[in-house]
């Protein structure tokens, strides 16, 4: 503990939810982000039950010289840095979702996971532009732009937000859309959250009852031929198809499926928003390379797309690093293989390249702050952390990935940093970070809110 914290008596009486002070029962659990490597030590944690709770927390913080750090649920919820003098505002209890089939939109509270949206949307034959896993948090994902399985077809998830409900720095609740506040509406669509706390979203939904999806796995010894074929193949596929290629090393643990346990594999995972017949035609060149060790490709309900990646569904200690790739050519894939291909000793469980492009390059009538993205791919590496020694080795390996792929990354960074907190300036087109910074200074001049990302 760091000495007596703020007196939260008046805050407790104002809330329906809980207030837990440092040192009280439940604080150790309440302070924890999804990524269990985060060591957040706020003097107070608020577990909000409603938008009114959030507004009351903001007013209390402003009156008592504190700051407020909102944090949602699921993948993407990682350390917010030093939280001394800060209330950690957890929105994990705000997970209500309402689907309007006629619109079609989903109204989604800020603590929801994408899995909370997927099921009710699927009942209506609809999908949202969710992340590659249903355990991704909606708020952080959408506010950061949002790249998932349907991005090549529809663009950033943030482009398809109709409206936000927010709490401003003066503790007031507001609805924000293009008509009511065009500048803030622009900023919230891909700008990281900035000068307000978003409490709910109105998200566009899309027709998709079935898709062709799954994965092909081969022994890692075949990685060179698979990676080379995938690199050539992605230049031929339509925007309705998104794929990733992964170099995987599954730990020999009982929690890992027996057919994967202790194995090193190369995998292509994909979603094609089309018929099974056409999907089978598209994937035929990869299936023809060699008989896959595992082949899970087939027609699945639209609601199953959130499970295709096979990501963890509960909080875990892990380190992840992401970087954009301007191009995916032979030099880049050779570097990819040198980092984690056959015969390489690495602590990284997964190194993957995600194919981007498609609609991400299309500005449309109003793309919001996220704008467009010309990068052809995204490289992401990750591994679970079991000890301080393991953490050091993983960080060193990820630094090697960053350095080795830097020649292919260009000047632009990604706000979709998964498990990291780093500045946003290089994540945007020229001038966007300055515009975001000016808006933040105007709407939150006292720096009341601690954002997930900074425009520095």
Named CATH architecture of the largest domain: 3-Layer(aba) Sandwich
Which regions contain 5 or more consecutive residues with pLDDT less than 50? 417-421
Q: How many β-strands, per DSSP?
A: 19
Distance between the termini: 31 Å
What name does the CATH topology of the largest domain carry? Vanillyl-alcohol Oxidase, Chain A, domain 3
- CATH class of the largest domain reads Alpha Beta
Topology:
Blueprint: H1 9-14, E1 18-21, H2 27-30, E2 44-47, H3 51-63, E3 67-71, E4 86-90, E5 97-100, E6 105-109, H4 114-122, E7 126-127, H5 138-143, H6 151-154, E8 161-167, E9 173-176, H7 182-188, E10 197-204, E11 206-207, E12 210-219, H8 223-233, E13 241-249, E14 264-272, H9 276-287, E15 294-295, E16 298-301, E17 318-325, H10 330-340, E18 350-355, E19 377-384, H11 388-405, H12 432-443
Parallel strand pairs: 2-4, 3-4
Antiparallel strand pairs: 1-2, 5-6, 6-10, 7-11, 8-9, 8-10, 12-14, 12-15, 12-16, 13-14, 13-18, 17-19, 18-19
């Amino acid at each position: 503990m760091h000495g007596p914290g703020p007196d939260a008596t008046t805050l407790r009486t104002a809330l329906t939810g809980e207030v837990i002070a440092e040192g009280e029962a439940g604080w150790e659990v309440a302070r924890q982000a999804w990524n269990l490597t985060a060591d957040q030590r706020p003097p107070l944690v608020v577990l909000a039950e409603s938008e009114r709770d959030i507004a009351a927390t903001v007013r209390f913080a402003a009156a008592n010289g504190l700051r407020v750090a909102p944090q949602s649920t699921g993948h993407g919820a990682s350390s917010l840095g030093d939280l001394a003098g800060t209330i950690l505002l957890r929105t994990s209890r705000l997970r209500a979702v309402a689907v309007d089939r006629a619109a079609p939109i989903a109204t989604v509270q800020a603590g929801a996971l994408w899995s909370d949206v997927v099921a009710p949307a699927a009942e209506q034959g609809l999908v949202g532009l969710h992340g590659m896993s249903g355990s991704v948090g909606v708020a952080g994902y959408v506010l950061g732009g949002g790249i998932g399985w349907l991005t090549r077809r529809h663009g950033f998830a943030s482009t398809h937000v109709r409206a936000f409900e927010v709490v401003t720095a003066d503790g007031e609740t507001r609805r924000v859309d293009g008509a009511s506040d065009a500048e803030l509406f622009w900023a919230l669509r891909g700008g990281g959250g900035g000068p307000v706390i978003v409490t709910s979203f109105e998200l566009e939904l899309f027709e998709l009852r079935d898709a062709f999806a799954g994965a092909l796995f081969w022994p890692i010894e075949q990685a060179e031929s698979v990676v080379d074929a995938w690199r050539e193949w992605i230049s031929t596929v339509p925007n309705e198809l998104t794929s990733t290629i992964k170099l995987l090393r599954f730990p020999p643990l009982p929690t890992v499926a027996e057919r994967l346990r202790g194995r090193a594999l190369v995998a292509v995972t994909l979603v094609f928003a089309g018929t099974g017949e056409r999907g089978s035609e598209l994937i035929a060149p990869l299936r023809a390379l060699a008989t896959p060790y595992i082949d899970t490709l087939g027609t699945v309900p639209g609601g199953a797309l959130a499970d295709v990646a096979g990501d963890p569904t509960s909080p875990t200690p892990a380190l992840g690093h992401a970087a954009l790739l301007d191009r995916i050519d032979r030099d880049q894939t050779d570097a990819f293989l040198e980092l984690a291909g056959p015969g390489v000793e690495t602590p990284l469980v997964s190194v993957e390249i995600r194919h981007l492009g498609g609609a991400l390059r299309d500005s449309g009538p109003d793309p919001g702050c996220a704008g467009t993205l010309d990068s052809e791919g995204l490289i992401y590496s990750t591994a679970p952390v079991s000890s301080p020694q393991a953490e050091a080795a993983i960080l060193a390996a990820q630094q090697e990935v960053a350095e080795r792929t830097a020649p292919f990354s260009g000047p632009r960074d990604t706000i979709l940093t998964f498990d990291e907190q780093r500045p946003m300036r290089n994540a945007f087109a020229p001038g966007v970070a300055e515009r975001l910074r000016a808006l933040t200074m105007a709407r939150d001049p006292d720096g009341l809110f601690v954002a997930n990302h900074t425009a520095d």
